[in-house]
Backbone:
């Protein structure tokens, strides 16, 4: 396999000149440029990742931390990042939460792993760290982008959506269809975006005159099994309901599955709304109505901002992301008063 030394020798130039041509940094005469390019073509020279790093002074790698690497939520985000980086001749390194520590400790260890691998910049999708953890990153915090959370100390580097408004839209969707007997399956209370969406949902219902203190609400785990378990608990509770709001699509899928299992028709008897508008929502049975969050746009703009920081690119960066309602077939108007539902076998 040809090396940069072979290119320099064939082109009749010094190693430094050949390196400047390959890296694109520094000036050379047009005639010398042509000789080096011709040598590269004749030798089919392809610099290794290590060689490109030495030439550019960067690792050409972006590190990404996510809390877990399963389910249907994070994978499309990782794919979007990887596609953009590959198109730019860059690479992605992923770390995710593992080990016996809590979410904060896992995030600290994951970010440390990426820094130790020499990543030029970092993308983090977690709210587990606190401000002092961000400060502890030292100079590295200046090349960190946070998705779906905002730290005041690096607010310019944070990209998120209006989840309070997202919760309001879900409530408005139920009210539009005359639902007032509503159950809520929330995500973990430690997830601030969950707190915001549930807060917006409850506030909109209160403005419509609904006493939210009497509503049935459960906290679950953002996963299908959590949705199933919460739906089972809801049915067993004897609470009268015509609608269920789930704080993400994966829990909503578990709810739909449990209702089908016990013979509760959706949307004939109960309407269900999810949150995130992931690909899964398009192919559930029935197809799930969901609050749309522009996750891909948020991700790409956060990445663009980071690439501008790390590589002096001039990519466009937007900070406002649309939140809307995607209507499918899991919601209908109330046709009769809610009944107490008993679990059937």
Residues:
């Amino acid at each position: 396999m040809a090396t940069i030394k072979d290119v320099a020798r064939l082109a009749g130039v010094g190693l430094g000149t050949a390196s400047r041509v390959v890296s694109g940094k520094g000036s050379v005469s047009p005639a010398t440029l042509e000789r080096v390019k011709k040598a590269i073509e004749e030798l089919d020279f392809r610099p290794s990742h290590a060689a490109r790093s030495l030439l550019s002074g960067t690792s050409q790698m972006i590190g990404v931390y996510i809390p877990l690497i399963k389910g249907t939520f994070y994978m499309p985000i990782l794919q979007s990042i990887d596609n953009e980086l590959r198109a730019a001749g860059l690479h992605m390194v992923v770390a995710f939460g593992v080990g016996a520590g809590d979410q904060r400790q896992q995030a600290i260890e994951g970010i440390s792993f990426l820094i130790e691998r020499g990543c030029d910049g970092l993308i983090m999708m977690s709210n587990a760290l606190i401000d002092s953890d961000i400060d502890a990153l030292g100079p590295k915090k200046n090349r960190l982008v946070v998705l779906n959370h905002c730290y005041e100390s690096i607010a310019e580097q944070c990209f998120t959506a209006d989840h309070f408004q997202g919760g309001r839209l879900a409530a408005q969707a139920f009210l539009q269809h005359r639902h007032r007997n509503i159950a809520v399956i929330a995500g973990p209370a430690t997830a601030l975006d969950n707190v915001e969406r549930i807060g917006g949902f409850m506030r909109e219902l209160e403005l419509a005159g609904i006493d939210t203190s009497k509503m049935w609400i459960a906290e679950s785990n953002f996963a299908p099994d959590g949705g199933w378990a919460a739906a089972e608990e809801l049915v067993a509770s004897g609470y009268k309901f015509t609608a269920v709001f789930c704080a993400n699509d994966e829990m909503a899928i578990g709810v739909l599955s449990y209702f089908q299992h016990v013979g509760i028709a959706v949307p004939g008897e109960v309407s269900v709304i999810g949150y995130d508008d992931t690909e899964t929502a398009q192919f559930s049975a029935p197809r799930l109505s969901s609050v749309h969050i522009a996750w891909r746009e948020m991700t790409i703009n956060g990445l663009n901002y980071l690439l501008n920081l790390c590589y002096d690119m001039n990519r466009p960066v937007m900070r406002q992301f649309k939140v809307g309602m995607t209507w499918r077939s899991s919601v209908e108007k109330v046709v009769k008063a809610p009944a107490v539902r008993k679990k059937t076998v």
Summary: Residues 61-160+295-318 form a domain with the Rossmann fold fold (CATH 3.40.50.2300). DSSP finds 13 helices and eleven strands in the chain. The chain has three domains: 4-56, 61-160+295-318, 163-288.
